[in-house]
Design brief:
The chain folds into two domains: 31 residues; 93 residues, Glutaredoxin. Helix content is 47%, strand content 18%. The chain contains four helices and four strands. A four-stranded mixed β-sheet has the order 2-1-3-4, covered by helices on one side.
Amino acid sequence: MLAYFSFHRSVIAFAIFSFFAIFCADIERAEAAELVMFESHGCEWCELWNEEIGAIYGKTSEAKIIPLRRVDIGDDRPSDLKHLGGLVYTPTFIVMQKGKEVGRIIGYPGEDFFWQLLNEIIVSKGLRATNGS
């Protein structure tokens, strides 16, 4: 009987721990900055961005500060992005912090201009890498 209660206590403790770990991860995601790329199938500028920047973005210092999240503009918008307006053109890049838009790049102006515009947003908003990076 003691083993029965001990087992159930362990299961309940694990469930509570798991809930709080997931809850805290959601809070951290909401607090952390991210770069949301709205793209569409067949978008030539999206394809060019993918070729020139998409393959390396995850390895850059910018990605440590604002990791990339992709959203297809034709799909249902995730609940945390439903409040965003003016999404007509692809690609559109929106920098989000604490659930709010803090910067936007509409279209893909080419590799050099993209990095310049993105870094202007990062610097002007004082964004920094998280998790000790």
